[in-house]
Amino acid sequence: MHVQPKYLPLRQSDFFADGRGSRTPPEGTVARGQLREDTYLHTGLIDGKPGDTMPFPATREVLERGRERFDIYCAPCHSRLGDGNGMIVQRGFRRPPSFQEPRLRQAPLGHFFDVMSNGFGVMPDYAAQVNPRDRWAIAAYIRVLQFSQNAPASALPAGQQMPSPSPLQVPSTAPSVPERKE
Amino acid sequence: MAQVFHRSTNTISRVSIALSVVAVAVFFFAAEQVQRSPYTSWRGVARTQAVPFSHQHHVGGLGIDCRYCHTTVEVSSFAGIPPTKTCMNCHAQIWTNAEMLAPVRESFRSGKSLVWERADQIPDFVYFDHSIHINKGVGCASCHGPVDRMPLMYAENSLQMEWCLNCHRAPEKFLRPRSEIFDMRYEPPSGEKPLEVDGKKFADQQSLGTYLKTKYRVRSVNDMTSCDTCHR
Predict the structure, then answer these.
(1) Domain boundaries of chain B, sorted by first residue
(2) Which structural domain, as residue segments, surrounds residue A141?
(3) Are B208 and B199 in contact (CB under 8 A)?
């Protein structure tokens, strides 16, 4: 009874040659809930080019989901701000570009989706760890990050124009560095 | 006729009756202690692994979230053990020559699975599900202990039925807000450090737990301790 002749996830098997109880589906079959239809949600492509729209509305819940997923899967390298100074980079991983780069600010949403789904250069893909809906949520949140660090003062809600420094806040002005003369 | 038994036999028989009661008691006490001890439950015994993977380094030191590796813990009964590819996400570039990581690289090259020794395991006749615990406000640390301080994984708790029931009988002693589930350093609210949830301040675990129990609609103690919840 303690060890029953059944397979639990990842349990070793002496029946299959490779010793795995959890089987990969044979070529050409689709497991339940794993259908990858050739739609925008799964490819991020419109007529072969990365699209710049969301396949579903970016509501507040979607953005918050995006933030949570970004902080789990991307922040170790890209940092929570998206500036590319994450912990793993500090330990020697190649430094990714900041999301504030003009090229990435102009990149369509579908490009971010594609980077997560297929990897990019030395960056691994996250297709196995993040499902397509969450990948879109992260892409939308990257837009939030890009906006938040470039927001015009007029976009702040009334009453928040100049956040008064409270003891909890880090002062927003950096220590003044003398300007370098050529 | 001479007495068959010497007078001292009276004492001996009384003492031996008393001793046999004590012996039975000692036997049961010892058996119970053995049953609850790490000897049976393996509690607190660190497992040696082919690759000395350290949660202390990766979680405590690097701040990686549990879900980076245990991807299905929120949605499935099984928390998920990361495939070799997940390690290679970083180790394709970091510590690429480390002897310690040779089995990981070998596994990635050959496609053969890494084999891990399990630290937490309950018998096959017990049903357990991670997702419901996570979604009803039970933190990883309530069951697995201070994972961020474990150089090698060990079971913090016995995982015996008594231990499960301890919580199922009074879940309010352990519940925390869902946002704190993955926080290994979470401390229950206290007088000095109250916790604010939904605009209300809580200064002790009892009131917080009772509030969360209603908020997350935790089922009745009757339901949770019924045998067929765990033995189905």
Answers:
(1) 39-81+116-230
(2) 59-149
(3) no
